[in-house]
Amino acid sequence: MADVLGTELSDEKEAEIELKKRQKRPWEDLHRSGKIGITAELPETLGFYDISAARREQPELSADPSLTRFISAELTRGYFLEHNEAKYTERRERVYTCMRIPKELEKLMIFGFFLCVDAFLYVFTLLPLRVLLALLRLLTLPCCGFRARTCPYCRRSSGSRLLQPAQVCDVLKGLILVLCFSMMHYVDYSMMYHMIRGQSVIKLYIIYNMLEVADRLFSSFGQDILDALYWTATEPKERKRDSIGVIPHFFMAVFYVFLHAILIMVQASTLNVAFNSHNKSLLTIMMSNNFVEIKGSVFKKFEKNNLFQMSNSDIKERFTSYVLLLIVCLRNMEQFSWNPDHLWVLFPDVFMVVTSEIAVDIIKHAFITKFNDITADVYSEYRASLAFDLVSSRQKNACTDYSDSVARRMGFIPLPLAVLLIRVVMSSVKLQGALSYSCVFLFYLGLVTLKVLNSIVLLGKSCVYVKRANMEDKLFERPTPTPSSSAKSPSKADPARCSTPSGEFKMEQIPATPCRPPPSSSVTTQPTPRTDLFPPPTTDDSPVIPANRPPTPLPEAEPEQPAPSLSKEEEGEAETVSEVKHRTPKKDLLEIDRFTICGNRID
């Protein structure tokens, strides 16, 4: 009896297990997907439905895994790009951006090149005239008298400065040029050329790379030396003995310009050796050095400010290379007695160097903008920023000369390059007779005409670029007036006086008038000096109290009321507001120069 009961229980368990297996059959998913319909007529074999019979009845919904069908599917397989429209649109925009980069980059390069030309021609044309005017003012000093309040001839008060700050800077620049030019006469260019020519090709390649790095370091530190000299010479001083600090700064600036001029001379000599080598191997290696620059900059992360610094550096390097090529051509033409046929011998090498420079810049900027998702319109912003520097230097509240602003923005210092060019021209061209001096005078007038026309065109273009970028409001903002103390050290400039390369200044708009040019302001208006540098003498207007009169008792102070307690939420809001007030403002392109970025310095 027990065996019969056990058999019945085991049969019931097997039936339940079989029912569960039927509920978990794999073709039920096919039934749910609609590929194979399980009907009542589907045959059942050993408790399972015959799926193969169903597949044979519906041959159009299945395919045999054969090689022919696989090849046919590969040949006829299709896809739709609109399923990922955003990705392919972005890729197409990148291609269009790379195609626009050469045009936009060359617009910036051409504008920056003529800015450097303007600053370079200023040294040869207007700077000598400004120095003569400053010296003429010094010579007319005795006519004023030292006790007269106002001179009847020049209408100048006795309490005014002998020279304006801009004239002091011009005289210092002129003295630096004269001293460095006289010191360059002791450097023999021919001996340096033959010394470099005797070296091996690999050694010359290493020397040229070291000279490029040294040129950037000299440019970085040299403008700081010149700015320190200008500020030390023009800052307000309480005692005359404070002016002694100008002397060490002046000798430091002369030493810097002289060393930088020698460094550029070595660069020009190395390039001249590369031009005159028989197998042109050195010139090829020097050109390949430009393509190595692509590897060092393309695969780095760039932001807009970093790209702006690199663009300014490329403008400066291109202009410097053109001046070096001019020096090389002058030296070679002198060696061949100014034979015009030799100029066509130099032309292929010059064209090769210029072409490689342009090609490297285009490739470098194209891939940097591609890898960092920067649009081509950013170069118009860079051009507007450079134009803003030019326009702001002509404003009534200008705090620096335009050539100095170009030097700070691009790292281009024209004084060493001008000293070297004058030295090479004076040694290459021999002047004899009155006719030669007449030609020199006519050439000088031509340079002055070129400088004036270039300045007029650049100023007009700059105004157009500033208007397009909607930067007119910033032209009429002024720094916050802060009292300056003459007890400061000469190396620390007043932050409210001018925008220095290593710092920011806080700008506030004039509240009384809207942001529009005042009626008397123009590009020819002379800047006005600050009146807060010389505080007026304090006058005691309080009435004199007699000695026998008792002092007036002071009113009793009211008891201080306790400050109302703040809740936790109000305290949190107050802390947030204070953090926002003390947060450092983000710099824009106008407050960035070439030597500001230290952490991400990429040239």
Structure description:
- This protein has 603 residues and is an all-alpha fold.
- It has a domain of 370 residues.
- The strands form two sheets. The protein has a two-stranded antiparallel ribbon with strand order 1-2. Strands 3-4 form a two-stranded antiparallel ribbon.
- A hairpin with a 2-residue loop joins strand 1 and strand 2.
- The N and C termini lie far apart (101 Å).
Sequence stretches where pLDDT stays below 50 over 5 or more residues: 30-36, 145-149, 481-521, 537-564, 579-586, 594-603
Roughly how much helix do the residues carry, as a percent range?
Answer: 55-70%
Distance between the termini: 101 Å
Quickly count the helices.
19
Strand proportion: under 5%
What is the succession of H and E elements? Answer: HHEEHHHHHHHHHHHHHHHHEEH
Overall geometric form: elongated
Decide which structural class fits the backbone: mainly alpha
- Overall mean pLDDT stands at 74
By DSSP, the count of extended strands is 4
Give a short account of the largest sheet: 2 strands, antiparallel
Placed side by side, the strands forming the largest sheet appear as 1-2
- Determine Rg (CA atoms, Å): 39 Å
